[in-house]
Structures are given as C-alpha cells and as structure tokens.
Design goal:
This protein is α/β, with parallel strands linked by helices and 478 residues long. It is built from 14 helices and 24 strands. It has 2 domains: 12-254 and 454-477, Aldehyde Dehydrogenase, Chain A, domain 1 (3-Layer(aba) Sandwich); 258-443, Aldehyde Dehydrogenase, Chain A, domain 2 (3-Layer(aba) Sandwich), CATH 3.40.309.10. Belongs to the aldehyde dehydrogenase family.
Length: 478
C-alpha cells in the first residue's frame, strides 16, 4: 500500500499504549483485494487486561468534572475535523466506499462528539412532588460504569462515535471492538482522543478476528456493566443471551428491512432523488437502506422508468477515483448474498430493468428489478447491496400492510403530497424511524434505533445519554 497517512496503524490501543499481538490479520481493501496493513489479533489475556484497565480508569473518570469531560470531547472533535482527509482516506481504504461519502461520514461521525460534548452538561434528574409532606423525592443520573461497544464495518467512524461519545460524556470508560474488516479508523481516532487529553484507560480499542469469542468475553464479564452492539439480529440475540448471565444494561441496533413507499400523489422526481440517496450509500450496505420499494400501481411504470434512468448514471469503481458513486461490496460473502437474492427473484418472476450483473472483483452493477414477488428472499431478508427491488401495491392500506409485513422495524420511508395521508401513514408504519418525503434521516440530534427485531434503545439525541447512565432515586426525610 502506497500512502503517507500516518494515522494508519496496525496496533490495538489499551491504556493509552499501542499493543502488538503475537498474531496479526490483514485488513483488505475491497476495491483492490490488496492488504492495507496487518493488525494485532489479540488473545484473551490482552482483552481481559483492557477490561481491567477500564475498571481502574473509571474510578477517576466518573469523578472528572463535567466541564473537563466536555472540553476533552470538544478537543477530540476538533482533531478529527483537522484530520478529516486522512480519516476519510482510511475509511475508503478499508470499507471501499467512495471518498466523497467517506468525507461526509467524517462530518457525520464527528457531529456525535460535538453533540455529546454539550449533552454532558444535561444529564438532568427530577424533583418529584411527594405524596407525603415529610419526604422529598429526587432523581439523579450516574454513569453506568465500564461499557463495551461492538461496531460493524459499514460505517467505521460513525458507528464508533455514536457509542463512544455518549459513554465518555456520561462518565463511563469504554472498550471498543471494531469489526475486523474495518478496525483502522477506530484505532486512528483513539490516538486522536489521547491527543485531545483523554486519560489512559478511559477508551480502549481491542482488535481480533474471533469476534464471537471476544463478544462472549465482553458480554459475560461482570466488570462490564453496559454492552452496546450494532450488527445482525442473529448475533444480537446471542449477545443478549450471554449478557443475561450478568444482568448488564444492553442496547442493540440490529437488522432492517426498510420499506420505501411511493404513493400515486407523490412528487416522482423528488422520490427518485430520495431513493437514490437512501439506497446507494456505501453500495446499499447500510442498515437503513430501503430494501423494498413499494410503488402504487397507477404510477409504477413512471417511477420504474425514472429510477432506472437515474441508476444507470451511477459510476461504479474504486472509491479513491473521481466521480465514483458506487464502490465494491465488502467481501465475497456479501457478493454471494446479492447474487443469490437477485437469482432467486428472477426465478420467481422479477424482471431486470437494468444491472443484475457481477462486474469484477467485489463490484456489482447497480440494479433495478421490477415486479419482485412477495415470496422472493429479498422481500424478507436484508439484501445489503445496490439493488432496487420494485413491488406493486393498490391501496394505501395495502401499502402499509406490505410495509409492515416483516419482523424488522428499523427505518421506513414514504413519499406523498397529501398532508393527511402523511400523518396517517407515519403513524401506521411499524418502524422506529420514518422519513417522510426525505431519504436522508440520520442526524446526531435525532434518536436512531428500531423496534421489533431491529433492536433495543436509541443512539444519538438527548436520549442517547440514557443508555450509559443509571437513574437513582433519593428519598429525603424532612
């Protein structure tokens, strides 16, 4: 790899020090298939050390004044902004997403640090009117303790800061296990956190290939009092079961199967723009990407033609190249799943409007399929690829029924210019987040999370602090 990026490091980060492993694993650039760097593959001893130092650091960090915690977070934010281009390059090298997308992720990811630097001052309690004149009732919020975070590969910075920033702001210490496909961004920003003034042991990054074993260590440790995980529903269920052994606080952002409804009164041009923005970020590999495009029959053909034309203009290639809009899939398993879903849909009657072609390596052509049947795999499973799957519906009630016909409930989108319909549909959709005439819904100030098998808890917003605090009730006798 030819780069002068000094933030690229292959060491874990424990107690403010770079930790080399006896073994290493390669981080692969999915656009080229080449190794970026070898990274420490930690053993159980090293992981348990990270837990121990986190516990020791918590004794002082929880007593650190709010103003100091906030200032450190602000310093960290400023350093990430200063190194925006280097961090964006790392994101593209390890995840494959286009460089312009990576720059947007740096802005988005750093915004959580800026937001929670201010929220550190607002972990409010309440004074509750007592039914008895002889008592005064007060609630306060305190940090939960040592926290652990397990993050996915698709947003190597934003998924990290969305968990780390509120934990630090609340007064918790935290151990981060980034995805083995994309650990380099997390390591880089951990070094910047130390440079910002974060004490040793408060934020530790552990790296390793055996994610299941590391997850088990973190979820069963009695020292770890909080576990935050973003990933698949299947892994989330396993971690929840393991975490039950120590009754720790948990929050999970899990799988999705987002519907994108286009009603017959929609602004079709706006709907196409929103669909492209929502669907093709990171080649469709986002948990809130629309997985099912439900289009009312009266405008189905017009919308299908318009989105096909828009998709055909998307340039595919290495994310470091100019004007590229769609990068590679993350690995062979991701490619095989996309191919399997497309093949299954075609066998069951779907039509190709564009794409449906493996290009080379891990690149797959942006695709539009029409009249995908409800029994297709991609109707029930998250495809996680650059595929627009179009389904027809007749009435508003049919559209809502189809949208809610899933075990997941993370994000949903719809387009309509009827204000009464907007309120009806938004209320009826079984989803934690709803985009109404909008394809980009993620924001640090808004609560991110789902219902049903899409998870528990919320990240971002004022509610994100609740996940890393405990509510304590104080009763004063007068």
């Amino acid at each position: 790899m030819n780069t002068r990026n000094t933030l690229i490091k292959g060491t874990a980060f424990i107690n403010g020090k770079e930790i080399k492993g006896r073994k290493t694993f390669d981080v692969i650039n999915p656009a080229t298939g080449e190794a970026v760097i070898g990274v420490a593959d930690l053993n159980r001893t090293a992981i348990e050390k990270a837990i121990t130092v986190s516990e020791a650091a918590w004794e002082s960090w929880k007593l650190t004044e709010v103003a100091q915690r906030s200032n450190i977070l602000k310093n960290w934010y400023n350093l990430i902004v200063k190194h925006k281009h280097e961090i964006a390059e790392i994101i593209t090298l390890e995840s494959g997403k286009p460089l312009e997308e990576s720059k947007i992720e740096v802005d988005y990811g750093s915004s959580f640090i800026s937001w929670f630097a201010e929220e550190a001052y607002r972990t409010y309690g309440d004074q509750i009117p007592s039914p008895n004149r002889g008592k005064q009732i007060i609630t306060i919020r305190q940090p939960v303790g040592v926290a652990a975070a397990i993050t996915p590969w698709n947003f190597p910075l934003a998924m990290v800061t969305r968990k780390i920033a509120p934990a630090l702001a609340a007064g918790c210490t935290i151990i981060l296990k980034p995805a083995s496909q994309t650990p380099l961004t997390a390591i880089a920003v951990a070094h910047l956190a130390k440079e910002a003034g974060l004490p040793n042991g408060v934020f530790n990054v552990i790296t390793g290939k055996d994610s299941a074993e590391i997850g088990k260590i973190l979820s069963t440790s009695p020292i770890v009092r909080k576990l935050s995980f973003t990933g698949s529903t299947g892994v989330g269920k396993t971690l929840m079961e393991q975490a039950a052994s120590t009754i720790k606080k948990v929050s999970f952002e899990l799988g999705g199967n987002a519907p994108f409804l286009v009603f017959d009164d929609a602004d079709i041009e706006a709907a196409v723009r929103g669909a492209i923005a929502a669907k093709f970020r990171n080649a469709g590999q986002t948990c809130v990407a629309p997985n099912r495009f439900l289009v009312q029959d009266a405008i189905f053909d017009r919308f299908a033609e318009a989105i096909t034309q828009a998709v055909q203009k998307l340039k595919v290639g290495n994310g470091l190249d100019k004007h590229v809009k769609v990068g590679p899939l993350i690995n062979q398993n991701g490619l095989k799943k996309v191919q399997h879903h497309v093949s299954d849909a075609l066998k069951k009657g779907a039509r190709i409007l564009t794409g449906a072609e493996h290009l080379e390596g891990l690149f797959y052509a942006p695709t539009v399929l029409a009249d995908v049947p409800p029994n297709a795999l991609m109707a029930k499973e998250e495809t996680f690829g650059p595929i627009v799957a179009l389904y027809r519906f007749q009435t508003e009630e049919d559209g809502i029924r189809m949208a809610n016909d899933t075990e997941f409930g993370l994000a949903a989108y719809f387009y309509s210019q009827d204000v009464k319909r907007c309120w009806r549909v938004a209320d009826a959709l079984a989803s934690g987040m709803v985009g109404i005439n909008e394809g980009a819904i993620s924001n640090a100030v808004a609560p991110f999370g789902g219902i049903k098998q899409s998870g528990l808890g919320r990240e971002g917003s004022k509610y994100g602090m609740d996940e890393f605090t405990e509510l304590k009730y104080l009763c004063f006798g007068l």
